[in-house]
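Predict structure. Input: Multidrug effflux MFS transporter, 408 residues.
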Amino acid sequence: MTKKRYFLLIIILGSLTALGPFSIDMYLPGFPAIARSLNTTTENVALSLSSFFIGISAGQLLYGPLLDRYGRKKPLYFGLTLYIIASAGCYFSSSIQMLILMRFVQAIGSCAAAVASMAMVRDLFPVKDSAKVFAMLILVLGASPLIAPTVGGYVSAEFGWQIIFVILAVIAVIISLAVIFLLPESYPPDLSYSLKPAPIINSFLIVLKTPQFYTYSLCGAIGFSGLFAYISASPIVFMEFFKVSGKNYGWIFAILSVGFIGSSQVNSQLIKKFKSAQIVNAALISMVIISIVFLTGSLQGWLGLYGTIIMIFGMLCCVGLMSPNTSALALAPFEKNAGTASSLLGAFQMCIGALTSVSVSLFKAKSAVPMASIILVSATLAFVVLLIGRRNIKEKIAVKERPVAVSH
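Output follows.
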């Protein structure tokens, strides 16, 4: 594979991966404006974020079997089309209930992009490169938290929150054109793959019974939920508790994203000297320590705005180191069922993320304490799952080289 082709694939797959996060990050600064426009509260607006996470979680399980049966691109076309239609529905929403429903449908569409891109990483690149490729996808993914909230803050302030969904629809159209004309079909349709309930459930069970998969997918998903706690709580913490404007909130969100993006790129260098499992272990221990300091400081009122930003930055660095490695280790055992494994991996992540998001909305305290508490619980549980789960991995499949056919 040439460097030019390698770079092009990373950009397209990264854009597909970023569509869901972009859909989340861009409308966060508009929460107060949406609440005023729809005569509701910011806590109720946050439920539209929860419905998005639930939609992605449900959609993951839908697309996994479809990707293994019909190839990667046909289900991807369907999902992107559904996303564009749902974005129009969000634009025309006249009540918070309609917005919550349209965000759910929008998520069903966007998760086709997420599942397909993860499966195509497994299709197109050698297993030994998977952690590095996932880290590079996070670099492209980093455009979302760097650009989306800042753009969203200015757009909602100047033109109204509805325009945000017009921009998202246009982005989806551009990505669709790139998929049609530039992205190869990496997995031929497998008509022997049955879509009947029993074989699908059996396929899921085969993946779920693999110790390396359930250990690193659950560990990664629970640890990653700290990011969802931050995303869900940050509009309330920064704009209502610390009284930051929507525009400045966008800049803070962008600055904090550097921790997540930067650490994922540092990971590309670390995996040259350390095993992925070692990096996951160190990242989770660091995340537990930072979370304890964050919660203690928030309860005692020691941190303030800048201290809170520093604590969140440290947490995001840990997530950025952990995530590419847990994904690579979880998917390493699979070739034939890569689509199913990818969908389960994403479902775990989004399901736990949705629960985290709903948990944040249940707290009435407008401070950083709910966020810090949930992050600490997430980090601790993830580390416990890692300690228990890896005892069951009798034959560990490392992220090492194994020939993988590349479709041109």
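The first helix runs from residue 3 to 25.
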